[in-house]
Amino acid sequence: MLPTIAIIGRPNVGKSTLFNRLVGKKLALVDDRPGVTRDRREGSAQLFDLKFTIVDTAGYEEDHIETLPGRMRQQTEAALVGAAGAIFVIDGRVGLTPLDQEIARWLRGTTVPIILVVNKAEGKAADNGIMEAYELGLGEPKPISAEHGEGMAELYEGLMPVIDKWVEDNPQEPEITMDDEYNVRDIEAATLQLAIVGRPNAGKSTLINRLLGENRLITGPEAGITRDSISIDWVWHDENPPEDVDPDRKVKLIDTAGMRKKAKVNDKLERLSVADARRAIDFAEVVVLLLDATKGLEVQDLKIADHVIQEGRALIIAINKWDVAQNTGALFNGIRGALDEGLAQLKGVPMIAVSAFTGKGTDQMIKAAFDARMAWSRRVPTALLNRWFEGAQERNPPPAPGGKRIKLRYVTQARIRPPSFVLFGTRVDQLPESYRRYLLNGIRKELDFGAVPVRLTLRAPKNPYADTKK
């Protein structure tokens, strides 16, 4: 557990640029247009020897709470709850604005320590803005350039006493780390990295809010509200946990932007948002593809599912808005059949009916995600793998194209997450794809991998005489 620092300010002062600077990578979307950031986004930050969780927030605006800017402001205000401190950013080139002064009045009324930062302070154009910042009554301003990395030492001086005070008040237990070879109990107890993906307006943010029991993410009738991929730590209470596993199981929920057909994406921000969602899939362990029950399964859903499978992530299909769906039996069976036909390379993907509005099926979905992660992380004992391999060949021997026998010698599991196997033999380059699929299906069904992506690589032993000169 690390102290949390929130970045606060009006739109377009460089909050996301500072966020990216502190986390050391371009996690938050940045654009010249104001209002790019909508939900609050967290990241692991480090500034010299200071380590903390940094929160990027939407630009603070004064619109009514029922409007989208108003809901964004509500999320910004929520970011201060429990924070160790806040970085209040103003634009040094523009100078103080009435909205800056309004935000400062709000911040002065809180008990959270404030570090006042004047961004875009490179050169002399920001000198007046730096002097005006003293009027806010929030102490000495720290001039920085988030884009160029200037003024980080001054920011460190402002953050150090705030973080030191938090650490003093919140003593920490030693951190436990694990590598790729941890045992079954460690896998069950580890935090589940769970991404929620789907087309715009499928209800991804609403579903996460339902799981959390609070309006953590901005929702509304407008499609495409979510832009950044937002990760949130959560604890799910498992009514029937595995043996020796705490029933309060840790989950990192990752909300993503809606993914439309590529041909329909013309806006630069939407392209960045979709790319961000694809990166979220890459970092997840299990991915929930959320469908809209009122619209059924579309080609774009299959494309998203195929991308998840190609990236080697465990996949779960959740059909949202089940509380308002019509002819549910026919709908469920129709989607099941279309999925099995459209994802022929991975049939039997878990499919669960849920309602983000009522909470129906959400526990079942999370349980399925933990089970999928377990299968995705499974390592088969060598003896069991060899017995299966021998039996598979006895039941269905490899073909002999052109009368020349393909000899399959042995198979080994090279890695987990996703399960990856290497098959050694002679003339494996001539092995038909149908026989390769036969082996893959056998691995999934007979070795209890279920519907998780399994990879099988074919290799021939190196010829010891290949490089010998005649």
From TrEMBL:
Which domain of life does this protein belong to?
Answer: Bacteria
Q: Name one GO molecular function term.
A: GTP binding
Keywords carried by this UniProt record: GTP-binding, Nucleotide-binding, Repeat, Ribosome biogenesis
EngA-type G domain span: 3-167, 192-377
Amino-acid positions noted as binding GTP 2 in the UniProt annotation, renumbered to this chain = 198-205, 255-259, 320-323
Q: Which GO terms describe its biological process?
A: ribosome biogenesis
Q: Where does GTP 1 bind?
A: 9-16, 56-60, 119-122
Q: Which InterPro entries match?
A: G_ENGA, GTP-bd, GTPase_Der, KH_dom-like, KH_dom-like_a/b, P-loop_NTPase, Small_GTP-bd
One of the Pfam families matching this protein, by short name: KH_dom-like
**Which residues does UniProt assign to the signal peptide?**
none
Function, as annotated, reads:
GTPase that plays an essential role in the late steps of ribosome biogenesis.
Assembly information from the UniProt record: Associates with the 50S ribosomal subunit.
| UniProt record similarity statement | Belongs to the TRAFAC class TrmE-Era-EngA-EngB-Septin-like GTPase superfamily. EngA (Der) GTPase family.
- The name on file for this protein is GTPase Der
